C-alpha cells in the first residue's frame, strides 16, 4: 500500500505543475495547437493513472485481494518501479510518450491483475 500511495503522490505533482510539464515536453517554437494537444494528452495520461491507482487502493481496502501474495508482489514491484520511473520522467523533463509507457506498465498492469484477482476470488466465494 505504501508504494501505491507514493506513486499516487508522485503522479499528482504534474497536476499541480502542469504548465512546466507540458512546456518541458514541447519543442521550442511549438504551435498553439500542438501545445493544446500535448496538454490534453498529459491530462488524460495522469487522470487515467490516478484512476487506476485509486481503484486498486480501493480494492485493497475492501480486502478481497489483500491475502493474495502474488498479486501483492506484482503490485508492489510495479508501483516501486513506477514511482522511480515517474520521478525520473518528471525530473528529466522527458516526452509525453514516456509518460504513456510508464502508465501502461506500472498502472494498467497492476490494476488489471488486481481486477482479475478480485473476479477470481468473488467467483470462488460465490461458489461456496
Strand content: under 5%
Question: Could you give a short account of the major beta sheet?
Answer: none
How many beta strands in the DSSP annotation? Answer: 0
Return the average pLDDT rounded to an integer. 86
Distance between the termini: 29 Å
Label the structural class: mainly alpha
Poorly predicted ranges: none
Helix content: over 70%
Sequence of secondary-structure elements = HHHHH
Count up the helices: 5
What would you report as the Rg, rounded to the nearest angstrom?
17 Å
Shape: elongated
Protein architecture, described:
By secondary structure, this protein is an all-alpha fold. The chain has five helices and no strands. Helix 1 packs antiparallel against helix 3, helix 3 packs parallel to helix 5 and helix 4 packs antiparallel against helix 5. It starts with a helix and ends with a helix. The mean pLDDT is 86.
Amino acid at each position: 500500500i505504501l508504494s501505491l500511495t507514493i506513486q499516487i503522490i508522485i503522479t499528482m505533482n504534474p497536476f499541480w505543475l502542469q504548465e512546466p510539464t507540458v512546456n518541458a515536453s514541447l519543442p521550442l517554437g511549438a504551435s498553439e495547437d500542438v501545445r493544446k494537444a500535448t496538454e490534453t494528452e498529459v491530462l488524460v495520461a495522469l487522470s487515467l493513472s490516478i484512476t487506476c491507482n485509486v481503484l486498486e487502493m480501493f480494492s485493497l481496502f475492501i480486502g478481497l485481494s489483500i491475502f493474495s501474495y502474488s498479486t501483492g508482489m506484482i503490485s508492489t514491484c510495479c508501483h516501486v518501479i513506477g514511482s522511480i520511473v515517474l520521478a525520473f520522467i518528471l525530473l528529466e523533463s522527458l516526452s509525453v510518450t514516456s509518460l504513456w509507457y510508464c502508465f501502461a506498465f506500472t498502472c494498467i498492469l497492476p490494476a488489471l491483475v488486481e481486477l482479475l484477482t478480485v473476479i477470481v476470488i468473488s467467483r470462488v466465494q460465490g461458489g461456496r
